[in-house]
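The record is kept unedited without comment:

——
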Amino acid sequence: MMKKKNMIALTFFILSSLLVACSNNENMKVETNKESSNMNSESEESMEEGMNHSGSKDIPDRLEEANNPTYEIGSKANITANHMKGMEGAEATIKGAYQTTAYVISYPPTTGGKMVEDHKWVIQEEIEEAGEQRLEEGMEVTLTASHMKGMKGAKATIESANPTTVYMVDYMPTTGGEEVTNHKWVTESELTVN
């Protein structure tokens, strides 16, 4: 009889231990899933912030509209550039076309952080000391553009120059999300006919 009671007590003890262990395991899974979900939503939010490159439709004072641009205002074109996620392959609506020199630049943001390398594009009229002359590769300049946080007032190095027609465009990112409006700039060579 005593043996039977000990056996029942032992069985009860083992079952209780298993139930407690399973319960703790489930709580850990729930907590892990909550953490994972929070991390995913945080990273999705920061990605969306980084992807929304809408801007003002204001343009620099000295910037001249292009005569007979390849892509007229209101027309559609495909973007072949991949300056940011969701841009390449998107259909653009042309909002403006301007004749200028577009520059590839590198600069340390005024807000701190990593050096921005080979940024496309800043135009002649968005550089403080530009004047009318095309700037040479390697020149140090001050930016007046504010396409991105930390750009305005930054000291930049000219990496290359490209006399061209630049376009301001609206497009829906191929990766989804909100429409990007008044994006500055896409060059003529970065667009193709639909």
Notes: The longest strand covers residues 91-107. The domain at 64-193 is CATH 2.30.30.1210 (SH3 type barrels.).
